[in-house]
Amino acid sequence: MGKGDKKTKRGKINRGTFGVRRPRVKKKLSVETKIDISTKVNPK
């Protein structure tokens, strides 16, 4: 159980792969995509 083990988190980090033990971190939405300027109502 260590760097050479395919099924452990440390082994996944060593190999640079992802799986059940080390899932990929999803990117968060940026502020620009959440607030769409073009859809705002223009005041008269």
Automatic annotation (TrEMBL):
Record has Glycosyltransferase as a keyword: no
Chain spans, region Disordered: 1-22
Bias-annotated ranges (Basic residues): 1-13
Domain of life: Bacteria
GO cellular component: a single term: ribonucleoprotein complex
InterPro entries given in the database record: Ribosomal_bTHX, Ribosomal_bTHX/bTHXc/bTHXm
Signal sequence annotation: none
Alphabetically ordered keywords of this record: Ribonucleoprotein, Ribosomal protein
A Pfam entry, by short name: Thx
Ribonucleoprotein listed as a keyword: yes
Matches recorded under NCBIfam families: ribo_THX
Family: Belongs to the bacterial ribosomal protein bTHX family.
Protein name: 30S ribosomal protein S31
